[in-house]
Design goal:
It catalyses: (R)-lactate + A = pyruvate + AH2; glycolate + A = glyoxylate + AH2. This protein folds into four domains: 100 residues, Alpha-helical ferredoxin (Fumarate Reductase Iron-sulfur Protein, Chain B, domain 2); 53 residues, no CATH class; 135 residues, Rossmann fold; 125 residues, Rossmann fold (3-Layer(aba) Sandwich), CATH 3.40.50. It has 25 helices and nine strands.
Length: 438
């Protein structure tokens, strides 16, 4: 793709990187075949190729974002399926992230939308605040259908209330800063990202992760001063808050790396993992660049760590068929496809993969709250494909996907909870529900 940025524009590192990305695109359109929004809407501007043209025009012109650009970029899920499909290696992730930050600086959204985005940024990355908000939403949930109007604000408010869980788990003791010692001879030492929303929605995931790793002889360090990875703000274009979160994590993990050392930084929410693995790029040119690159190099999905250390079950095969839902951030963002399925099979589960497994479920961070209509259509499509597998249970490696899909006919559970159960941990509640329904 030919570009026409001025030398002054190219002096900005973000613009220079976007220019490099744009020039790798050859307009082939193969990305349109796997783009969820193009699949649903059939609009070229709601495909990666169309958005690339809009972003190019916006950045080259150095002009404020228009309503048209914002509408089509906002509809992008950042599922990154286009990057898996692209034969030219276009790094669409970095391009659209730059576009979102540019939009946030140059476009004034309607007041109601600005307030909603600020609210999400205020609540979701902070477990204590988010927990209180969910408790309040639980009381309001029965009245979601009474919210009047068809405006985007009304649709989003109804979506938020409907997604509020029926109950909010109590905070888990495992998540406070401490060292969880290995059981038996120590084979490794890892840090772990506790996350933000996941702590509130499903603390059982972190509990299962720590139980399983320590039983495998791996010491697990919950570092002080870590927090949200920054992904939620990053994908809303809130550059400075995202960098503050990331900077705190880099500092916290760097203290451990430079102290007793870490063999890996374990991440059990694949959306977070994609972001942490990108810290090196995010902090290029920053004072923390070397530390960020080291942290990014140590970041590993839980499935990678379990494979590396030789996971093995201790229980008999459970006789359950599991539909494995590949989170976009895992299969497209991190290119991890084989490990979770291999681990589930090793644990004794019959694993089925639904049709259109490369297509997003519609969760995508805050997408199902900001774009509820499109997210709802993708969710229904995914749940229908999963139902056709004949499975009794959905397994996935991302809290957003589990929340999005778990209110259907089949219960949803994190892959690591199933693996922990088969290696001596407690039976997940979702398994009990699946057995009862079978």
């Amino acid at each position: 793709m030919q570009t026409n940025f001025s030398p002054a524009q190219l002096a900005d590192p973000d613009t220079a990187e976007s220019n490099r990305i744009l020039r790798t695109c050859v307009h082939c359109g193969m990305c349109t075949a796997t783009c969820p929004t193009f699949l649903l809407l059939g609009d070229e501007l709601d495909s990666p190729r169309g958005r690339i043209y809009l972003i190019k025009d916006m950045l080259e012109g150095g002009k404020p974002a228009t309503e048209q650009v914002v509408r089509h970029v906002d509809r992008c899920l950042s599922c990154l399926s286009c990057m898996t499909t692209c034969p030219s290696g276009v790094n669409y992730m970095h391009l659209v992230d730059h576009a979102r930050a540019y939009i946030d600086r140059t476009y004034e959204r309607p007041r109601a939308e600005r307030m909603l985005r600020r609210l999400l940024s205020f609540l979701l990355p902070h477990p204590a605040r988010f927990r209180l908000a969910l408790l309040g939403a639980w009381f309001a949930r029965p009245f979601a259908g009474l919210v009047p109007g068809a405006s985007p604000t009304a649709q989003r408010l109804r979506a938020m209330l409907r997604m509020a869980p029926a109950s909010v788990p109590s905070p888990s003791d495992v998540e406070r800063p401490r060292v969880h010692p290995a059981i038996g001879p120590r084979r490794g030492r890892v840090g772990i990202l506790m996350g933000c929303a996941q702590q509130v929605l499903a603390p059982s995931i972190n509990e299962a992760t720590i139980r399983l790793l320590t039983r495998m002889g791996i010491e697990v360090v919950v570092t002080k001063d870590q927090g949200c990875c920054g992904a939620l703000d990053h994908h809303m274009g809130h550059h400075d808050p995202a960098m503050r979160f990331a900077r705190a994590n880099i500092a916290a993990w760097s203290r451990e790396i430079e102290g007793e050392g870490l063999d890996a930084i374990v991440i059990n929410a694949s959306g977070c993992g994609t972001t942490v693995k990108d810290y090196g790029f995010m902090f290029r040119g920053e004072p923390e660049a070397a530390q960020a690159a080291k942290v990014a190099g140590l970041a590993a999905d839980i499935s990678e760590v379990l494979t590396r250390f030789g996971y093995a079950p201790t229980r008999e095969a459970p006789g359950l068929t599991v539909a494995y839902h590949a989170a976009c951030s895992l299969q497209h963002g991190q290119k991890i496809t084989a490990e979770p399925k291999a681990l589930l099979k090793a644990a004794g589960f019959a694993v089925k993969e639904p049709a259109e497994s490369h297509i997003c479920c519609g969760s995508a961070g805050t997408y199902n709250l900001l774009q509820p209509e499109i997210a709802g259509r993708l969710k229904a499509r995914k749940q229908d494909n999963i139902a056709r597998t004949g499975a009794v249970l959905i397994a996935s490696g991302n809290i957003g996907c589990l929340t999005q899909l778990g209110d259907g006919a089949l219960p949803a559970v994190h892959t690591v909870e199933l693996l922990d159960w088969m290696a001596g941990g407690p039976e997940p509640a979702a398994v009990a529900r699946a057995r009862a329904a079978a």
